[in-house]
């Protein structure tokens, strides 16, 4: 009787009969656990992808063990950093270091009378003889309407004009600055980069082209001079420009006429008209605009009648008229070869003086 484990037709030729040729291969438990089994997808089965048991992994070196979400986040951070560096370098209006130190340049011109200084005919109406065109106080400043420039909006230009107008009122029209010695209101408009220069000009005014206090403010010595009228007559204009793409520039050119009398003089005392021309250049960056402050970079002051022998650095020192007029010393000759006298100190003759 045949072996029940053999097929009915007997063992195949060349076979081993009861000897199983794979009997020596043992699949223990550790072998089975170590095997990687991957189920093919339906698409792979239909495509006949039976020759590849597993998918090939892309090797990324040290980054091969980093999760995909972390790699994506790292890539986004790198892209954001690169963009920030690019735009920070290429932006045309980026904020650079702000100016510091002595920025204001001052030119003072004394206008000496050609003859004796006469008082006005009617002290109650001291400005009656002025030519047409002068207006009272801030009206005479002629502040224009704001208009956009190439790099500054209409709102920014309007704010700069408003700051300049308020500065001119505080420094050229306010009695506190003119005859009371006050400087705090004017200093409040000065940008922090110029405040040290302003403070030095207040403490130690000198005509060195940078530290004359009268470059910042029109002021008369309160021990010598008083206002004979509450109003100041003004005529002039303002010009809007750009110094560069990040700097708005406003240039002002005004003539102020003050009615003055000696300090302590009674009502009806002789009144003298003092004429002061101020040509100022202001600059603003966007930080200045936001803080309503300004940089005064150039100041030219002409004042008369004043004697050529006096200094204009601390006060405008007018020649005040007496009842019958006051004679002033004639301007002295200037010797270009005399280097002991600063070249910028100028004295001229006041027209009609």
Kindly list the characteristics that best describe this protein.
353 residues, alpha+beta, eight-stranded mixed sheet, 23% helix, 20% strand, elongated
Summarize this entry quickly.
By secondary structure, the protein is of the alpha+beta class. The chain has eight helices and eight strands, in the order αααββααααββββαββ.
Low-pLDDT sequence parts: 90-95
- Written as H for each helix and E for each strand, in order along the chain, the element string is HHHEEHHHHEEEEHEE
The shape, in one word, is elongated
Q: From the helix content, strand content and strand pairing, which structural class follows? A: alpha+beta
Strand residue content: 15-25%
Q: Sheet bearing the most strands, described? A: 8 strands, mixed
The averaged pLDDT comes out at 85
Q: How many beta-strand segments?
A: 8
Measured as a percent range, the helix fraction is 10-25%
- Alpha-carbon distance between the two ends: 156 Å
What is the assembly state of the chains in this entry? single chain
How big is the Rg? 45 Å
Number of alpha- plus pi-helical segments: 8
Q: What report would you give on this structure?
A:
With 353 residues, this protein is an alpha+beta fold. 23% of the residues lie in helices and 20% in strands. The chain has a domain at 105-350. It is elongated, with a radius of gyration of 45 Å. Strands 1, 2, 3, 4, 5, 6, 7 and 8 form an 8-stranded mixed sheet that branches. The relative contact order is 0.16.
How are the elements arranged and paired?
Blueprint: H1 29-34, H2 42-47, H3 68-90, E1 105-113, E2 135-136, H4 154-173, H5 175-178, H6 184-187, H7 192-203, E3 225-227, E4 233-244, E5 247-262, E6 272-284, H8 286-291, E7 295-304, E8 346-350
Parallel strand pairs: 1-7, 1-8
Antiparallel strand pairs: 2-4, 3-5, 4-5, 5-6, 6-7
């Amino acid at each position: 009787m045949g072996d029940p484990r053999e097929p009915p037709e007997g063992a195949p030729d060349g076979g081993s009969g009861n000897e199983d040729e794979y009997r020596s291969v043992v699949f223990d438990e550790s072998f089975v656990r170590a095997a990687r089994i991957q189920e093919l997808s339906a698409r792979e089965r239909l495509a006949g992808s039976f020759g590849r048991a597993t998918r090939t992994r892309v090797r990324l070196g040290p980054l091969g063990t980093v999760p995909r979400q972390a790699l994506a986040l790292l890539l986004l951070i790198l892209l954001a950093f690169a963009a920030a560096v690019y735009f920070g370098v290429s932006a045309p209006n980026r904020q650079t270091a702000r100016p510091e130190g002595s920025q204001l340049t001052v030119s003072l011109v004394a206008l000496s009378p050609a003859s004796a200084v006469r008082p006005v005919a009617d002290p109650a109406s001291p400005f009656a003889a002025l030519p047409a065109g002068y207006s009272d106080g801030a009206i005479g400043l002629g502040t224009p309407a704001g208009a956009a420039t190439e790099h500054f909006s209409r709102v920014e230009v309007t704010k700069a004009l408003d700051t300049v107008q308020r500065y001119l009122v505080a420094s050229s029209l306010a009695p506190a600055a003119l005859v009371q010695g006050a400087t705090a209101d004017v200093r409040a408009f000065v940008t922090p980069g110029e405040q040290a220069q302003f403070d030095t000009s207040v403490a130690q005014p000198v005509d060195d082209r940078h530290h004359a206090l009268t470059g910042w403010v029109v002021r008369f010595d309160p021990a010598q001079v008083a206002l004979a009228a509450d109003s100041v007559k003004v005529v002039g204009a303002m010009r809007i420009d750009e110094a560069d793409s990040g700097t708005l520039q406003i240039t002002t050119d005004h003539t102020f006429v003050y009615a003055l009398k000696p300090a302590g003089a009674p009502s009806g005392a002789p009144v003298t008209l003092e004429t002061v021309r101020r040509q100022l250049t202001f600059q603003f960056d966007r930080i200045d605009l936001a803080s309503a402050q300004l940089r005064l970079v150039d100041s030219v002051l002409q004042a008369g009648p004043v004697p050529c022998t006096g200094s204009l650095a601390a006060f405008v020192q007018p020649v005040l008229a007496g009842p019958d007029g006051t004679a002033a010393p004639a301007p002295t000759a200037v010797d270009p070869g005399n280097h002991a006298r600063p070249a910028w100190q100028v004295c001229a003759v006041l027209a009609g003086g």
